[in-house]
Design goal:
By secondary structure, this protein is an alpha+beta fold. It has three helices and 14 strands. A hairpin with a 2-residue loop joins strand 11 and strand 12. The longest helix is centred in the first third of the chain and has 69 residues.
């Protein structure tokens, strides 16, 4: 009686113990399934984000490329202005220098004065020659007037009358030459004061009063600050997107926050190819035998006239950035 009862109690205890174990194992299996589903979802999200980033990068690249294609830009640009060498039209010693290097001047200002004494002496001599000729002309005219009435009465000869008339004509011609000399010397005397041909700034001034200047040789230069332009070098493939009259935007490296309006004035039609050898017109063309596998696009200068330059910011040779807004509207 004792053994069957003990066996029955053991089986009952085993069933009682296996029941909670089975119930505990079921939630664990559900937890593993939930974690796997979360991992799959996270991987899907990461893949979607990666694809979105790639598509965004491609789209942004294509957009930037299209913008640059339609609106070419370059930082290979410099600010320019016209420069004129101030060369005197009279030679001599500088008596007075009225300007300094980098000084702003206005049109009509006297830049420097040349010693005028030599030209004054030549002018006085020419005036004296004119006075002497006027006396000779008056005497020759009087002689001719006296001889002409005597010719019909045979009191003089035709040769005498012709000689007096020829002398008067010669003296009158000489007078015209002396008058021209006086005018020329007065002009030379006026050249002793060198005047600014336009408003601008004095540059490259390296002389002082007392220096001797020569006709036609520049003493210094004058920068024309009334008109500024930018020379921008664009690649040959970009030139087709612009034309004379195209609107442009210009930035100076020294003031990147300010933009200046511009307009394309002209596009360069010729640049010297690198490595080319110039030959006479009757020669044959020279072609290099080697081949460059990397071909760098040629750049052509584009002249952009600035419409609203800032006189305090623009300097000759300043670095700039130029952007072409597109061909001119038709």
């Amino acid at each position: 009686m004792g053994e069957p009862t003990t066996t029955l109690n053991k089986e009952t205890a085993n069933r009682s113990a296996s029941g909670p174990a089975t119930q505990a194992a079921a939630p664990a299996k559900a937890a593993v399934t939930s974690t796997a589903d979360g991992a799959e979802g996270g991987k899907l999200v990461r893949n979607l984000v990666a694809l979105l980033v790639v598509f965004s990068a491609v789209f942004l690249t294509l957009y930037v490329w299209s913008v640059l294609e339609r609106h070419p830009r370059t930082d290979d640009a410099t600010a320019r202005a016209n420069v004129v060498g101030i060369a005197p039209r009279a030679a001599g010693q500088i008596l007075k220098l009225n300007v300094q290097d980098n000084q702003a001047v206005k049109e009509g200002d006297v830049l420097f004065e040349i010693d005028p004494e030599d030209y004054k002496l030549v002018l006085e001599k020419a005036k004296a020659d004119l006075a002497a000729l006027d006396r000779q002309i008056a005497q020759a005219d009087s002689t001719l007037r006296r001889l002409e009435p005597l010719l019909p009465k045979k009191f003089t000869t035709a040769e005498n009358v012709d000689e007096a008339r020829t002398k008067l004509t010669t003296l009158q011609a000489q007078r015209e030459g002396v008058v021209a000399t006086i005018n020329l010397e007065e002009l030379h005397l006026s050249y002793c004061k060198v005047i600014a041909p336009f408003s601008g700034r004095v540059i490259n001034l390296n002389i002082s009063a007392g220096a001797h200047v020569t006709t036609g040789v520049p003493v210094f230069s004058l920068l024309d600050t009334s008109k500024w332009y930018v020379i921008a070098n664009f690649r040959e493939a970009e030139v087709r997107h612009m034309a004379p009259g195209s609107e442009a935007i210009v930035y100076l490296t020294s003031a990147p926050s300010q933009r200046f309006r511009g307009k394309v004035q002209g596009i360069g039609w010729a640049v010297k190819p690198e490595g080319e050898i110039d030959l006479p017109a009757s020669g044959v063309p020279y072609v290099k035998r080697e081949l460059n596998w990397v071909r760098v696009a040629q750049r052509f200068p584009v002249r952009i006239e600035v419409e609203n330059p800032d006189q305090d910011l623009f300097r000759m040779g300043a670095s700039a950035v130029a952007i072409i807004k597109g061909p001119p509207a038709r």
